[in-house]
Known about the structure:
Layout (H helix, E strand, L loop, with lengths): L26 H29 L5 H6 L5 H11 L5 H13 L7 H5 L7 H36 L4 H14 L3 H15 L23 H27 L2 H8 L4 H39 L4 H11 L2 H29 L1 H7 L1
Helix pairs in contact: 1-13, 6-7, 6-9, 6-11, 6-12, 7-9, 8-9, 8-11, 9-11, 10-11, 11-12, 11-13, 12-13, 13-14
Amino acid sequence: MAALVDESLNAPGTPPPAVVTRRVRFPVLAFLIRRLALGLVTLLVASVLIFVATNALPGNVSEVVLGKHASPPLVAALDKQLGLDRPLTARYFSWLGGLVHGDLGQSAVQLANGVPDAPVSKIIGTPLRNSLVLALGTLVFLVPLSLIAGTVAAVQAGKASDYAVSYPALILGSLPEFVLGTFLILIFFTQLHWLQPVAGVPPGTSPLDNVKALILPIMTLLGVAIAFCSRQVRAGVIEALRQDYVMMARLSGLRERRVLVRYALRNALAASIQTFAQAVQYLFGGIIVVEALFGYPGIGSLLVQAVTLRDVTEVQAITIVLAAVYILINIVADLLVVLLVPRLRTGLS
């Protein structure tokens, strides 16, 4: 039997059928959900790598924590408390299930010292808060100073103001944190006696109770981070000033300050958000060195201590928390870029 064909579809002059495209009602929300889902997958992969890496170290954790003279029954009892007597796969899924419910496990060192209940979540809570205070305090100054320095250098490109900003940024960016921190201690403590070199936080207090002690650690982190961020802002502003829409805004009679802020700086900021996100991630990495240099009781110092004492549970908990922070920073940065650039929002729909 011959197939029936609608000849009107092939008739001359007949317009082609319209292609129906499905538009997303809330494109930004859909984008955020996709990024969160991808972040969870990335965090899951990171958890596997962290667990395998920490358990691949040679030697028995209980024997290391208890000491070489510990009796076999004592070692076996600690193995049972830590779950080390079970297969590796079972231990991973038990650890992963604990993470989902907010249980980061028990500290091996605390259990070995006779503490019956030593949840890692309580141990890392205060140091994590201290590190967040230090990182956020640095970020509060980093963003505006980088924008100001980068914009001034871009507007005055090739002039004395540009060199006055760019060359110090190059010098600061080439210095490791411990070198810059040592110079700051030498200047502000040894020579001027203005600031204290130790940023200790007594138990039961907050870092904000002694803001003066945070100045040198923040200056150290800020000096290295602002060098990178300001140069990226400078490059972004110079590129934005060369665009046609900036030229049209100038020809329309807008003031130079308004052209700079509304057109050039806004687009340069969108391009620099990923740079600021990398700087925030650097802050959590550089904090380890800065905390050790200034005796600051943050998450970096706790991580070094946990690695030294071979407290595998603490190392796993701290690294997975830092991995989650890094992933969250990337998600927030991507979302801000989408919100700042209308063209990207249009592409999502």
